[in-house]
Amino acid sequence: MTRPDPNQDKHMNARPDFLFLKKDTLYTEKIVLLRLCSFNPSPEDKHQLEQLIASVKDWRMFAYMAKANGISALLYKNIVDLKLEGIDKSCTAEFLHEFHSIKFRNTLKIIALKQLVTLLENDSIHYVVLRGYQFIRRYYMHLFYRDIGDLDFLIDPDSFEKAVRLMEKHPYRLITMPYEHHLMYIDTKHNVQIELHHDIISPPHYFKYALSEFLKNTVLYKDNEITVRVLNNRYELYLQLMNALYAHAFVPFKARNIVDVYAVMLSMGADAPWEEIIKQVNSTGALNYLLISARICHDFFNVPMPQVFQQYVEESRFKDKYEYFIGYLFHYMEYIKNPKFRKNPALLQIRLANTPANSVRLLYHYLFLSAKYVRYSRLKLRVPIFLFHVIRLFLLPFRFIYKSLYTYIRNK
Fold it and tell me: Which of 74, 251, 349, 402 makes a 20 to 30 Å CA pair with 104?
């Protein structure tokens, strides 16, 4: 996407004015963190950022939130590129340390990935590399601006048993099976975690796209001496949105998740068939996540919003959900590693579901996962934990009624 003309859209480069967040004591720090995640910051951004940086008070929390949300290396890159002044030196040193740590970890993970890809190719096993590796190679355009995390491989179900036997023959140790849609291994040579997926998410019957569609909609990416099969831009976007909607029922939504969606949308550009994409995403119940991502790209990263999105984001219903999401995101930027202050992530998914049917589906999905987690807890605690989840789900409608009445009275 091309950068918009500031003279045509002056409010685009302005600081977003979220009045409902004014009580947040780290409001400025969080705004600066998000603004520094831009992939192509301009000189105008530098001037605005330095004005905001002058208002930052808690640099210790600033560094903590950047690391907890997985964006330290990207921030370091922009601080150096823009030659920003006013950043605390200890904070910059911590970002530099994290950059070198990611550099070391990602180097080992790429070696492990190339080794496994070669083994899968030699055994004619149909695979697709998901998420982390694809992002650093195709979207972030740098090996060390984002941690790869686990190495995720989507395996054709017909070849899955063959892939498991292959892992048993080589230095890969099965460590656990927490979900029904993948197996987790450790590469004992490089100490890298590998996940073999035979489906996209769990439980699979909630996913509206056939697995065969993901296995077909791939591209070959040449990485030095090997060629790696990855998802095309469109299906990588679908995967990120579905992961946000279903897989984060227990995991908080990091700021990096927003940056990942932003990276894919930036790569697709304004000329992508967005009307068709919106229809397909809407059929999965993840439309609000797509609209929120586009709005955040507009508000924080200065990316022009495709025209087709305008009719949706101007609706009052969407504005309420956008405020709710921003509040949730800002909350977790601070408390992402502190369980004492965590909100229930399932509330976010149910709140942002764009159809009543999808809300019910998410409630059932959350209950399904609750039962599965109860299964792995201590015997004496199973019944109380399960009852706790059931009671909390029963109280959700009353919470929504209260929030709706509060919003109505406030707008009056």
Answer: 251
> Which pTM was predicted?
0.78
Total number of domains in the chain: 1
| CB-side neighbour CA atoms (13 Å) of 85 | 2
Express each pLDDT in 247-285 by its tens digit: 655 566 788 888 888 888 888 888 889 989 888 888 777
Burial group, residue 220, by CB count within 10 angstroms (0-12, 13-18, 19+): exposed
Q: Which of 147-156, 194-203, 250-259 has the highest mean pLDDT?
A: 147-156
Q: Is residue 168 part of a domain?
A: yes
- What's the mean per-residue pLDDT of the chain? 77
Q: What crossing angle do the helices spanning 160-169 and 89-122 adopt, rounded to 10°?
A: 110
User: CATH number, domain at 195?
Assistant: 3.30.460.40
**How would residue 370 be classed by pLDDT, with cut points 50, 70 and 90?**
low
- The answer, yes or no, to whether residue 87 has pLDDT greater than 80, is yes
In a domain, 256, yes or no: no
